[in-house]
Design brief:
Layout: H1 3-26, E1 30-31, E2 34-35, E3 46-48, E4 51-53, E5 62-70, E6 91-93, E7 101-107, E8 113-120, E9 128-133, H2 134-140, E10 147-154, E11 183-184, E12 191-199, H3 202-211, E13 218-225, E14 228-238, H4 241-253, E15 260-264
Amino acid sequence: MTPGRWAGIALLALFLAACAEIDFAATVMKSGGQEARGHYKVGQPYEIKGVWYHPAEDPFYDEEGIASWYGEPFHGQLTANGEIYDMNELTAAHKTLPMPVYVKVTNLENGQSLVLRVNDRGPFIAGRIIDVSRRGAQLLGFEEKGTARVRVQVVDQESGRTWAELGREPVGTDGAPAPAIDLIHEDPGGGLFVQAGAFTNAANAFVVSNALVGTGDIHVIRAVIDNQVFYRVRVGPFLARGQADRILEQVVNLGYHDAIVVTAM
């Protein structure tokens, strides 16, 4: 085979790898196999069952209340900002926050936390402050119960951290502070890592990183490749391949089927 042909094959492989990485990132923003095509929306005041709601931007939103979840018959229907609702994605409905916006939802009954993307309106039941997708309820640990007492906080899209001035950190079931996942700018080298994905949007990376809590030490790493910024979600490091493979299996079982084991130098 000629050198030119080898070079062509190599370039094609690099292109396909880049496409796969970008396609994987896009899955967080997809519903029902289609890309989410909703638009940013705050909305006008509206009335439901005699109650008026006043949507507004609120970067310091921080509220405790009851969360519920919704699935059928809303699965596959349009959301309030024009997306397609998928009960298997990490999304939520809120009565007044802009759409889309990312919120950290902490189940105050078990300490589990998750970042969800608000793209719908609701719930319109007294005492309830947020409706999460079925997948969100599963990861937060209240699918079977149906409701849970939660804390909801808006997060900054770039850092994935809450904007509100926190008086205290959410705590886990053992009374210890829930783990915080920080954005770092260089690989924590020296070992094997399970990479769940690489995302062009930091908020998508933090959605995934929160879903992986409990699998090990989680890192969101900012990397620049050919002038494109990616946010890599990795678990590790692991010294032995067998240990990394066991965690890889856990990550795949959580729904991240394109996860791989990588070596950080």
